[in-house]
Amino acid sequence: MPVVSAFLVPGNPLPKLKPEVLGLGRLAAAMQRAGRALAASRPDAVLVYSTQWLAVLDQQWLTRRHSAGVHVDENWYEFGDLPYDIHVDSALAEGCVAASPGIGIHARGVDYDGFPIDSGTITAASLMEIGSEARPLVVGSNNLYHDAAITERLGALAAACADEQGKRVAIVGVGGLSGALFRTEIDLRADRIASTEDDRWNQRVLRLIESADVGELRRVIPEFSAEARADMGFKHFHWILGALKGRFVGARVHGYGPLYGSGGAVVEFTL
Amino acid sequence: MARGEIIAGFLAPHPPHLVYGENPPQNEPRSQGGWEQLRWAYERARAALDAMKPDVLLVHSPHWITSVGHHFLGVRQLSGKSVDPIFPNLFRYDFSLEVDVELAEACAEAGRKAGLVTKMMRNPNFRVDYGTITTLHMIRPQWDIPVVGISANNTPYYLNTKEGLAEMDTLGKATREAIAATGRRAVLLASNTLSHWHFHEEPAIPEDMSKEHPQTMAGYQWDMRMIELMRKGRMREVFKLLPQFIDEAFAEVKSGAFTWMHAAMQYPELSAELYGYGTVIGTGNAVMQWNLRDAGLSMLN
Fold first, then answer.
1. What is the least distance, in Å, from the CA of A58 to any CA of chain B?
2. Which domain covers residue A177, as residue numbers?
């Protein structure tokens, strides 16, 4: 099996931008721990799906071998810049582009200087120390018209392409849990999950992941999405599930907390 | 201080294809043309704008999406390379623009007093979104008029159309107040497409106009119905139908720019000049102008 580790991490950049805020610092530290676990699994590449890389035409795959620059988040610009220096396994990414029509998905590579890599990918790469030359990425976009099933097929496709190329890969789904954000400015130190109901949903889903109850997860995720505004229908979890062929034996939650009212968790899957 | 004036409002959609089709030096990709009817429409709009001699262009863009309040560009000079995340093959544009920070601050303050959450964007490394840049390039490629860039708060999507557009109405009124207070002669730009059903795959040659057509008949018919009402100045009917139009044509005016602009202009029952209509990957785009100066409605206070 080419998949050597798998993780679900939040894409909101606040843990990176404001780690001095206790709750955000804890999430940042959890992502750093997850990054160390990922490194210990010795992958040749890391297959990333970020809910914040939005696409509407085709399935886009980042194929540019090296991208570096400074990104500024369109919402959280006041807290500073997000420098990035991201290496991609372009051979594997091109393999994913080429294989996508085989599962009925029109795809294209993205190889442009200055392409706006999304905040989620940059945050995960930075805090988990992935996207280095040693641990290059393959990043797939979140096509807004793709549902959970298609996303799962894309995760499976990426893992299969890695297998064909004889590469060991780590899987990272970048996105949040409950999606309700506060609509007014808050003191970040007083951040909390927007509602008790959202918090309950998050805890329930995390327990199901910890217990590896995939059947129940598949059953409740649509409800979770509708009632707790789960980030993009929790498609980042389906990316992971696809790459894992729907199987894992447990999970460890490294961190869970609020991100301006929404929920974020750092989860390491036990394979 | 001179009295403020809202000279005109333009419906000024932002498909990056129009910049791509024009081949300006700022845009890296080269095309064989395409979307001429819309680009010629913008040529006429450019001539009209040139005659107005405004102090400032205010643009509300659906591609700067903010979740906590309504944001305003607040750095005097912004420059960089804007690459469209959806169409990076078509739009990689070197931009440099001057912001009217004083007016932007006045808009933010007036909005705050009206009960909105507003914020000034002060990060000099901020990359301006492609919607703002495309609209500004298409209407004024010389880039010699200061701008106020306004984000699209996502309330219409996060809550519902009614509450979201009510916020945009408040934002428009606050914008009017700020223009009056600062004495600017302003032109408003609503960076919105009409019907927004679109293709899901791009033609192999993006500018192959033999592949361009409305994505749906219903979307096209809605566009024609709304444009006809606008041409006749029946704006009360337009706004009465707007929620239905948004629902049935997936219209991008949901994001608020159109409502913001008309609220700032006090919803004049005024005939719009249609410069042209065309589709871009199936979406409906109209370039239109409401000229308040010619109608004697432009002076504020």
1. 6
2. 3-270
